[in-house]
Amino acid sequence: MNCENSILIRAPLPDIYAATSDLERWPTVLPHYRWIRVLERNGSALIVNMAARHGVLPIRWTSRFEADAGAKELRFHHLKAFTKGMDVKWTYTPTGEGVLVRISHELNHRFPWFANLLARYFIHPVATRTLATFKSHLEKP
């Protein structure tokens, strides 16, 4: 299962990258995130427990997170929960109108139909809301 979300944010790339890569501040910017708890720090990598809401449904997972400032990428590898094994990559592409922020999800699940359900009903909607909220936050005058 591959799933992709993207949005154009009209703000400087350094501001966008700083806000989106500051994982521990996500719950203060993103109201649908309940918490992000750092379980382990290993150099530039973090092991984090993340919790969000999709509507009224609480969801949570554990990920390995790395921010690569040189490449301007964020990478997550899900370690626990229904999305175990999923790789997520955030990329940032400057354009003439702003920065295209893209989130790519890749999940090879032993039940492809289940991965497709996760993508359609949880992964895509949560990522869409995350990007839209960052856009609103970063484009404020």
Walkthrough of the structure:
- 28% of the residues lie in helices and 45% in strands.
- It is an alpha+beta fold.
- Strands 1-7-6-5-4-3-2 form a seven-stranded antiparallel sheet.
- The longest helix is centred in the C-terminal third of the chain and has 27 residues, at 112-138.
- The model has no long low-confidence stretch (mean pLDDT 95).
Number of strands: 7
In terms of structural class, how would the helical and strand content be classed? alpha+beta
Through-space gap between termini: 38 Å
| SSE topology string | EHHEEEEEEH
Mean pLDDT: 95
Physical arrangement of strands within the biggest beta sheet: 1-7-6-5-4-3-2
The residue fraction in helices comes out at 25-40%
Percentage of β-strand residues = over 45%
Low-confidence stretches: none
Outline, from the CA principal axes? globular
Radius of gyration in whole Å, from Cα?
15 Å
Q: If helices are DSSP runs of H or I spanning 4 or more residues, what is the number of helices?
A: 3
Reported for the largest beta sheet, the result is: 7 strands, antiparallel
Topology, please?
Layout: E1 2-9, H1 13-21, H2 26-29, E2 33-42, E3 45-54, E4 57-68, E5 73-80, E6 87-94, E7 99-106, H3 112-138
Q: Could you list some keywords that capture this structure?
A:
141 residues; alpha+beta; seven-stranded antiparallel beta sheet; 7 strands; 45% strand
Brief rundown of the structure:
The chain is of the alpha+beta class. The chain has helices at residues 13-21, 26-29, 112-138, and strands spanning 2-9, 33-42, 45-54, 57-68, 73-80, 87-94, 99-106.
